[in-house]
Amino acid sequence: MDQGINNKPTSSGHNIEIMCPHKQGLLYVVPSENNWVCSKDTIHAHAIAGFFNDINQLNDPRIEALTQKWGIYYRSTKSQSTEE
């Protein structure tokens, strides 16, 4: 596995490899009731954006603490398809 973030499409979805010298992991994205609307090529982007959007809407102080701890923040933006 190369360092960084590597998307690897599979027959059932996407495996997203995340690796640096200090931490590594594998994120699996598979079809579900909320990500079926996207093509197989973009299902992982739809699922991850939806997941983080839902996480933000929880307004949970524990989640806010984790975002500050790791320096990971998410905000929804308008897509080109919704602007047209």
Q: Which features would summarize this protein structure in a list?
A:
single chain, 84 residues, alpha+beta, 3 helices, 3 strands, globular
Structure description:
- The protein is α+β, with helices and mostly antiparallel strands.
- The protein has one domain.
- It contains 3 helices and 3 strands.
- A hairpin with a 4-residue loop joins β1 and β2 (14-19).
- The longest helix has 15 residues, at 43-57.
- The N and C termini lie far apart (39 Å).
- The mean pLDDT is 91.
Task: Give the topology, please.
Blueprint: E1 4-9, E2 14-19, E3 24-29, H1 43-57, H2 61-70, H3 80-83
Antiparallel strand pairs: 1-2, 2-3
Through-space gap between termini = 39 Å
Q: Main β-sheet, in a few words?
A: 3 strands, antiparallel
Which band does the percent of strand residues land in? Answer: 15-25%
Q: Total domains, how many? A: 1
Rg calculated over all Cα atoms: 15 Å
Q: Strand order, main sheet: write it out.
A: 1-2-3
What's the count of strands?
Answer: 3
Helix-strand topology string:
EEEHHH
In DSSP terms, counting alpha (H) and pi (I) runs of 4 or more, how many helices? 3
How much helicity do the residues have?
A: 25-40%
**General shape:** globular
Q: Residue ranges: pLDDT <50 for 5 or more in a row?
A: none
Structural class category: alpha+beta
Mean pLDDT: 91
